[in-house]
């Protein structure tokens, strides 16, 4: 109980301090750096040329709202599958997304490029806990928590085409990205159902596969969605992505856990990792095949450096492979540092026996709390014994 | 148990084979027949006239996404009301919708017309099981499953105007369809609540009515939504639709089940059947009254053959009545053949005692599985006795 | 039991009569007053100037649908947090919204202004029940009901920018309103998490705060969202709104209940009341600072009377403060009269011991009903004793 209450004290101090500090920092930075642009400023609006309005991401309003729907609802509910972690899943995703919305305005100002999910996706895990088996009984789902998670999956599925097409140019590029993503998602859904039934005990479908691997088609065309991969190319890419993702959940994940001591509750490696790498390789391949003939005047939008003669298609492909390498390097470093930081004693992360448990961060309604208290008490007894 | 495991083996082989075969067939057909059109192809984009962009259904992007929201979320969650069939409801709707998305591209190419839900709607039931009373205890809802189903109902309600206006011409036709659908849905909701309270035991509202009959207003203006039915005409149509649908759930359904041996778990006949026929009759009536004076230049869009003088309004009405007759004929034939096919032994449909039960198709979380196993065991004992 | 059944009879008669009467009245009023406008009428469409299309609220179609998503899903699910009131929350919100949709068309015709939520928001509570402690055990949530409520919260959060920008002019005003609302919501979410952890027992987050106070940022810029409040001004306003709302739930609400006998189950005063008043004061302040220099030609859209020289900025501010006073007066009067009307015996409101209970209005699935019947029976025994 001592550990429990010291942990609570930690949250009481750290979360407010972090929120206050970050919000104050953002307000100060906003006051110096952020201004309404000519589309939004009342005084500038009527003097400006409106024709480039659609090129500004922040004012392609439906896409902006679509991406929020995907991130807040999609990711928020996807992780409610854990039977006693629904509050934390939705709540902390909510907090993080609200913060990212503000932060991304600043980052975007400097980088002039935006990809809604990146900030979010960079946050989780490279962490292992040696006594995690004590929380193992909570790493499962219950019937209704799986239905809540399907709210997340289906919103992600429907809005992934908007998400992939958000950073593209309007016009043909956006159409092509949306269509390729739809076809790829369609094919990954079919391959996921097929392999889930084929590989599971007694031919039964596994909700974890459906909730996750069916989305791999959206990930795999994340790089190449705007390129001329052809509709049947998108179907093949999606089918392969659904396949490797389902195989990952079935065969790779148990090995990662038992041999490499990697805890991957949401299967991020299976859904975002492997299909993402496959997508990057696909993107490099298709970039290497880009010609003026295939893209016409549109080459200027998709590959401006090739169109202007500063780069050959082959060197564009090499650059993209190098980009993949840099991404993997940064992800490993960032994940490693993040994992070490989370182990700092001052962050008072929960003890191994209380993982996946809302009750340490949230006021939980009584009937549930009772049940949990029972568990915790019996675990404490075990620990002392 | 023998029956159970042979059934599982069936799913293990058939579902993957079906998915693989269909996906391969679609990929091959796509590679031969499907190309980006001039709105989507990078090379063609800048040479084309953009002005007709909005007329292409696939690129009226918001509508396309709206229809997906309606089908994936609306229909997926609507059927979660069954207490132990939530996984199957959402999961199989998901699979079918993902397949339909691809298939419809092909069909559309040949037919040059598209109505998102048609493919989906053609799939279910004309089936009766003589020992279905053994699954009767699972044909009900539980408290939370009814709340999940309301997610479906409300998404269907909100997106039905988009759905009805998707195949119409842009401009006034689309506005009129959306508005008429909203008004009709509003009136059917009020009549559903009124009749549900009026007819139920002790004046209590019945969730089944609210979840379904409130949507009848969207069905009833499916044919006539684009026509000049006037706002108060839409209100009257919706009110009637909600009324006959609620009466259907209350009085017709028990008769269909006991006398005609028709099992209609979702009440498709009450929500889609009767209001659909009413809507077709309404459409024929309004078509018969169409004049140049009422429609102005817009007559060209709504009734091109009348506008061009190839058909009188009366003969248009007769054609539409004939269309209703053909639809009912095809539906009866299609449903009959579908029902016979589903009874083929090689399809290993579940035994009567295991209907409405996720556990025969899905890995179900433990606490629930235990409960179910108990039921199955006691049922097996009964069957043997 | 006598009371219970007389109450049921009340619903059986009153709800249908009310629905029939209101629907008939609306149909008659529609038949006299409502016509398709030139954007929707087939005969008028081709003769009209299309350029002002976007100024008509009913045909800014995405916004219209967004506002419905917010009201039907957002408010509908927000109130499912009550463990045994989910059917009533979603169902009655559904009925009321379907009615409002029709009613608002009429009201709008007279007032030429529309604000989607106003009608809805004017409906609830100023009511106290002296024996409400007998229903107290049902005023809590259960684990899954809190997750359902989060569906409501997150949809409200995502669609609030659409809601605030719905009545504004298109162009820069709409962009500015959406952006200001997003920033304000982002900041109120951070301050809500911060104060919830800071003030709660053991630093634990409280779901009631997250579900409600996080939305206060949307309320507080309801008046001033279109004005040039600057992005960091929006952040500060949102942060303050989240703070006073969370403090209201924590400290003010228990006082209101014990001292002033005000029952505010949803915390309307904390989410809509105080942040709304703060927002009105902020709006008056910013209006008083409006200059031609800051707004440019846009001043015509935001403050037409100032732009045309009929009013100074200071008198505009005074008018807005007077508007706040009138709103508070009408709200008090309307709430008081509403409260008195609801106490009329002929409306047969439920007895104090059966508040927050679906079972008196709805057919509730069996397993739940059993549980409730147990409660009711033991309560009846208590009451008799």
Description:
3 copies of one chain form a homotrimer. Chain A is mainly alpha-helical and 385 residues long. The first copy, chain A, has a single domain (9-30, 58-112, 136-365), classed as Ammonium transporter AmtB like domains (Ammonium transporter fold), CATH 1.10.3430.10. Chain A is built from 16 helices and no strands. In chain A, helix 10 runs antiparallel to helix 11 (268-288). The longest helix of chain A is centred in the N-terminal third of the chain and has 32 residues, at 2-33. Residues 1-6, 47-62, 112-124, 126-130 and 368-385 of chain A have low confidence and may be disordered. At the A-B interface, helix 6, helix 7, helix 10, helix 12 and helix 13 of A face helix 1, helix 2, helix 3, helix 4 and helix 6 of B.
List the helices and strands and how they pair.
The structure is a homotrimer of 385-residue chains.
Chain A: H1 2-33, H2 42-45, H3 61-78, H4 86-111, H5 118-121, H6 143-165, H7 172-199, H8 207-212, H9 216-220, H10 231-258, H11 268-288, H12 292-295, H13 299-302, H14 304-307, H15 313-342, H16 366-384
Helix pairs in contact in A: 1-4, 3-4, 3-6, 6-7, 7-10, 10-11, 11-15
């Amino acid at each position: 109980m001592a550990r429990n209450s010291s942990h609570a004290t930690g949250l009481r101090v750290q979360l407010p301090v972090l929120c206050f500090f970050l919000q104050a920092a953002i307000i100060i930075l906003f006051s110096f750096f952020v201004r309404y642009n000519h589309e939004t400023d009342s005084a500038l609006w009527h003097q400006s040329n409106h024709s480039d309005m659609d090129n500004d991401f922040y004012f392609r309003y439906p896409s902006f709202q679509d991406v929020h729907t995907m991130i807040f609802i999609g990711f928020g509910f996807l992780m409610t599958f854990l039977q006693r972690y629904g509050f934390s899943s939705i709540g902390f995703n909510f907090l993080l997304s609200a913060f990212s919305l503000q932060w991304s305005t600043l980052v975007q100002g400097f980088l002039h490029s935006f990809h809604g999910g990146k900030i979010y996706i960079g946050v989780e895990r490279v962490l292992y806990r040696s006594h995690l088996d004590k929380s193992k009984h909570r790493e499962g789902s219950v019937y209704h928590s799986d239905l809540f998670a399907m709210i997340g999956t289906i919103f992600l599925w429907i809005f992934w085409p908007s998400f992939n097409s958000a950073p593209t140019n309007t016009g043909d590029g956006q159409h092509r990205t949306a269509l390729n993503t739809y076809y790829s998602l369609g094919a990954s859904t079919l391959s996921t159902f097929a392999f889930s039934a084929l590989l599971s005990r007694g031919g039964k479908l596994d909700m974890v596969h459906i909730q996750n691997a069916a989305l791999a088609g959206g990930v795999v065309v994340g790089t190449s969605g705007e390129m001329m991969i052809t509709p049947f190319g998108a179907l093949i890419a999606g089918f392969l992505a659904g396949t490797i993702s389902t195989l990952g959940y079935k065969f790779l994940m148990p090995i990662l856990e038992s041999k490499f001591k990697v805890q991957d509750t949401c299967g991020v490696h299976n859904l975002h990792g492997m299909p993402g790498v496959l997508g990057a390789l696909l993107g490099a391949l298709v970039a290497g095949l880009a010609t003026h003939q295939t893209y016409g005047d549109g080459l200027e939008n998709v590959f401006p450096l090739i169109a202007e003669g500063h780069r050959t298609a082959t060197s564009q492909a090499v650059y993209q492979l190098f980009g993949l390498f840099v991404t993997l390097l940064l992800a490993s470093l960032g994940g490693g540092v993040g994992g070490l930081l989370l182990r700092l004693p001052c962050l008072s992360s929960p003890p191994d026996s209380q993982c996946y448990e809302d009750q340490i961060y949230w006021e939980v309604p009584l009937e549930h709390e009772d049940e949990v208290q029972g568990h915790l008490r019996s675990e404490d007894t075990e620990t002392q014994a």
